[in-house]
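Posting this for the archive.
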Amino acid sequence: MPGDDVAALGEPADVGGVRRGADAGSGPGGDPGNGLVARMRAALPAMLADIGTLVSCESPSADQAAVAASAEVVARVGTRLLGSAPERIVLAGWTHLRWRFGDQPSRVLLLGHHDTVWPLGSLDTHPYEVRDGVLRGPGCFDMKAGLVLALYAVAALPDRSGVTILVTGDEELGSPSSRALVEAEAVGRAGALVLEASAAGGALKTARKGVSRYRVEAAGRAAHAGLEPERGINTTVELAHQVLAVGALADPGRGTTVTPTVLSAGTTSNTVPDSGGFAVDVRVWDVSEQERVDRAIRALAPALPGARLTVTGGPNRPPLAAAASAELFGQASVLAARLGLPPPGGVAVGGASDGNFTAGVGTPTLDGLGAVGGGAHADDEHVTVAELPGRAALVAALTDRLRRPAGHADGGPP
């Protein structure tokens, strides 16, 4: 039963230097679950220090040296908390980390990334700080606080067998090197818990849109814009036709957005442009829509005689359908109640994560289990400090529930 799952976490152990057990907040006046939330509250100063350590090591995704340095910082913090060092996996220059516990096949995957969108030097203008109950710093919300929550949650488990933690280093770029690694780690698991930042108000992310990305390029013929423009094949005009055609592929009724974004053409103002192109961002709720848009974009035909089109790109992440998260969301809700936490909300969001990949291989996936706060990728990025202990406790309880085979120990599945 869920109550047994939570109670099983009451065995003595250290979490961030705080001894767990009857003296750490369990019993009358404490939270249910042998004081798990209270123990995480006691560990909060250490937790904040570790978040500060991670945030203070800048890790822009495209800078592989910075990502490698960040991986070493995450590895040191994780080794101290977990008592074992991670594997360092370098793929196409990006450094990823993996902890595996136990001799049997893993049953639950905790997933996150340590790269961020913030360039080197961002700490000069956005320093790490904790003030008035709010933590700030580049990448704190997305998602270095979530990494620390994962480490503290697993450190709280008296038995970690069946647990894998995977921390990737290129998620913000679309996971070009780590996608296959994420999918391989997720296949056959009872669940994937994604420590990406929460939605507004701490809601869990129960569905995510799939993402496709394209580049549409046009080739024409240059000519003098004043003397003989009729001899040219104007790629600016050609691209204008294609932008309208691509934008028309959107289907608001199905939540499908097809958005032309960055566009460029030509070289000088008095020359008919002979080349150019634009990027396309596609977001869909279901695979059939992703396939429809893909076919249509690849079937684009030139509008001007003599113009040529080239389309590159395609689907980047499959949708994370609500059905993939429903069971885990139900379990999280039950465990939150047992821990004395407010019931978590659940929302569908347009942004994608590596959780799209885990759901895409058929693994039950619950996303948005990381920090509560806001402002991801923005100047006001922040984390609400008071929410960290409860979040860590919920992730610990859910991990412990999933790592044990159904029907084994403490009454089986909820």
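The longest helix spans residues 64-82. The radius of gyration is 24 Å.
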